[in-house]
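Weekly modeling sync, notes
Attendees: AB, CL, MP (scribe)

Item 1: holo prediction request
CL wants a bound-state model with NAP before deciding which constructs to order. AB pointed out that an apo prediction alone won't tell us much about the pocket. Agreed to run with the ligand included and paste results into these notes for async review.

Input as submitted:
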Amino acid sequence: MTETALITGANKGIGYEIARQLADHGFTVLVGARDRERGETAVAKLRAGGADAQLVPLDVTDPDSVARAAATIEADFGALDVLVNNAAIAGPYEGDGKPSSTTLPTLRQVFETNVFGVVAVTNAMLPLLRRAPAARIVNVSSEVGSLTMTTDPDGPLWPMAAIPYPTSKTALNMITAQYAKELWDTPIRVNAVNPGYTATDLNGHSGFRTPAQGAEPIVAVLTAPAGGPSGQFTGFRWGAADGAEFGSLPW
Ligand SMILES: NC(=O)c1ccc[n+]([C@@H]2O[C@H](COP(=O)([O-])OP(=O)(O)OC[C@H]3O[C@@H](n4cnc5c(N)ncnc54)[C@H](OP(=O)(O)O)[C@@H]3O)[C@@H](O)[C@H]2O)c1
């Protein structure tokens, strides 16, 4: 039976590539997009490449939009096999970008999307995920959310000191762990996956991985045999001491 996958923020970047690759694996992909036109353009492109794709208008910061998205998926499919919480923002760059330059409105704005949006969407979709035989949730996280990596003076993240985006991903990691625990005795697997530093609009295209490469570890988790691990943080391992590019990341 064809599985359905909702990807938030799938109109561009890594989210678009997740949708494209999942469609290649035979999924019906529900393209979450906050802007209808950008979403329709992405859906048309995916369909032109052979994907079974459908637009789901979805602004993760808007409770009405989240509720409407869940109602649409319920009406059209009755259940949901995969949720990818991918939508995120970096927030405006303020001053020198350091913790001491951070303003609360920016911090709130980033958390609205990257943290509160994830909880809102996950809770709205959970009734549909529970109806699927073996649902999976992937929260698209980042190595910059890893307390262990960010405090390693010999690691690649040592030169970086910022609050909004990194702390939003640390919170996302904890949210992943908490959902995994709640859903431990169900078939639903909940994991955080790091695409690695990827050239997208989020970072002014400064990343060294392509969006297709960034999507790969996420799609690998979602297409793994049912009954896999839950509550894990895996993906691309930047500067890993053992040289292994993919695997577990430290929290
Ligand atoms: N790029 C990296 O190096 C990197 C590294 C680690 C993790 N990640 C994570 O990977 C994920 C995808 O990021 P990306 O690099 O592909 O960024 P991107 O190209 O900027 O794409 C972000 C997507 O999220 C959407 N979005 C933002 N706010 C939204 C909202 N309120 N509701 C719904 N959609 C919203 C954007 O829609 P619009 O087009 O309408 O703005 C866009 O589709 C994020 O979770 C990011 O934190 C990225």
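Recorded for review: The first strand starts at residue 4 and ends at 7.
Action items: CL to compare against the apo run; MP to circulate these notes.
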